[in-house]
Amino acid sequence: MPIPTPTMAEQPIFPTLTPAQIDATRTSAWLSTFEEITPKTSIVDLDNVGEKDAFLEWLDADSIFIPRDSQTQPGPSHVPRVEEVEPGDDDSDTDSDSEAPVYHLPKLNEAIRQALKDRNGSVFPKLNWSAPKDAAFILPQTSHGPLHCTSPADLYLLLKSSDFVSHGLDPVRAYASGESIPEESAEPERRSLPVELVLKEYVDVNPSREMRCFVRNNVLIGISQRDSNFYDHLQSEETRARICDTIRSLWEDEIRDQHPAMGVDYTFDVYLNPKLDDALIIDINPYRLSTDSLLFSYPELHSIFTQSQAPVSEITEQDRPRLPVLKVIDSAAHPEASRAAPAYGGNMMPLEMIEMSQGRSMEEFRDAWQDAVARGMTE
Ligand SMILES: Nc1ncnc2c1ncn2[C@@H]1O[C@H](COP(=O)(O)OP(=O)(O)OP(=O)(O)O)[C@@H](O)[C@H]1O
Ligand SMILES: [Mg+2]
């Protein structure tokens, strides 16, 4: 007997995603399909490099020691240049180096350096699905945006300071579907997932032009502003219509049905050009609770979806939403816009940093922290 497929109106709030569909949202899985419409990107697969176990051991260790030989040579890097110490060096002014762990990832250093060269000297890093956004504070601010890396050491420092990147290394979390956000699994399980560094050409992003788009059952239902500030220039009807038209065309012409492995439920992030008449893909995410629904809620997206698909007998054309529904922060008093706390505040500081910051100005603290990091590389 044939199994009846659910009608549109019976679709649950969240689709059930298979591990294969979630894998299809990895950058390495979609990059070749969308290469013309995404910033240039290098993928470093730790299995191919042959240093996956050593990398995970370093990442899991409690210390903040940075792998040897990872600083830019000879140009400047964000991480202060320090003298390298050979294990067992008998240098008279260091006395604790015999006990300090020494991490050595020469092939990975080389692969990152090659990627930096290929991407004009600076990259935006991700590990599997996640960028270390919660660790952005660790690198000194430059005229570029956060997470601007110019050396393997910059990258290591970010990865080591981030909680977010570990989510993409845990198979239970990585493949969770729907509403579940499981506890982290035991460390050995992490060895089973591929580990990929995604090194994207660095783009100086204007956050007002970043949007997240929601696709349910192969219908583009919603678009949300990604940044949480109010922007006057996003308010006019004309601008909003243009944003919807541009994203709808991009999706219909270049995304829909182009990468069947990800299925019919996903979200994609775009970056619009200054004229708002073209856009690049920044990322693709699974359609599930752990993907931030930003100015929508998932039940709201579900209701937009069901109303848009309802038969004419059940809804007046006036009540039927016009898709995609665009949400931007529409006043400076919007609850999302008035959040005083910095984004990812809860993830910001490892305990040792909080301790180190006591009684210091931000500048003194930054110097002290960089000093400690530099010492971490030699001790
Ligand atoms: N190539 C890039 N250059 C500079 N900044 C970037 C680049 N790609 C992304 N960003 C910035 O970093 C933010 C996060 O990027 P991205 O979506 O790739 O990370 P993510 O970890 O997948 O985020 P999320 O958890 O929200 O899905 C973007 O909103 C954008 O502001
Ligand atoms: Mg993402």
Automatic annotation (TrEMBL):
Recorded superkingdom: Eukaryota
One term under GO cellular component: cytoplasm
Residue ranges with Acidic residues bias: 85-98
Region called Disordered, residue ranges: 67-101
Cited InterPro entries: CDC123
Similarity comment text for this entry: Belongs to the CDC123 family.
Protein's name according to its UniProt entry: D123-domain-containing protein
Native source organism of the sequence: Papiliotrema laurentii (Cryptococcus laurentii)
